[in-house]
Design brief:
The protein is of the alpha+beta class. 21% of the residues lie in helices and 41% in strands. The chain has two helices and seven strands.
Length: 106
């Protein structure tokens, strides 16, 4: 898989920001509380692509591709999650961008 970069421009020559990718691991009471579906909805609202999956460890993994401001907003949301969740920690890694289409849960 080849990483790619997408940018937002103010005009034809002025770059303001690049799309980037982050991988989050969310710990706590985050499975069985609609965390993945709620994350998908929040990502769609923020125009972020990627996925949210349950891990065998009881954690949720979120791969998100978007512009830094939108990713920061998603990260803030991940620290709270849906009302039923009890988030203990959110770990973040900057990772290469992979081709994504929309936001899926698995």
């Amino acid at each position: 898989r080849t990483p790619f970069v997408q940018a937002r421009y103010v005009n034809d020559s002025t770059l303001i920001e690049l799309r980037t990718a982050r991988l989050y691991t969310i710990r706590g009471a985050v499975q069985g509380v609609w965390f993945r579906e709620s994350t998908r909805r929040e990502a769609a609202r923020l125009n972020i692509s990627g996925y949210a999956i349950n891990l065998d460890t009881g954690e949720v993994e979120v791969y998100a591709v978007g512009y830094p401001g939108e990713l920061d907003a998603l990260e803030d949301w991940l620290h709270k999650g849906p009302p039923q969740a009890e988030v203990a920690a959110v770990e973040r890694q900057d990772v290469p961008i992979e081709t994504t289409d929309g936001f899926i849960t698995g």
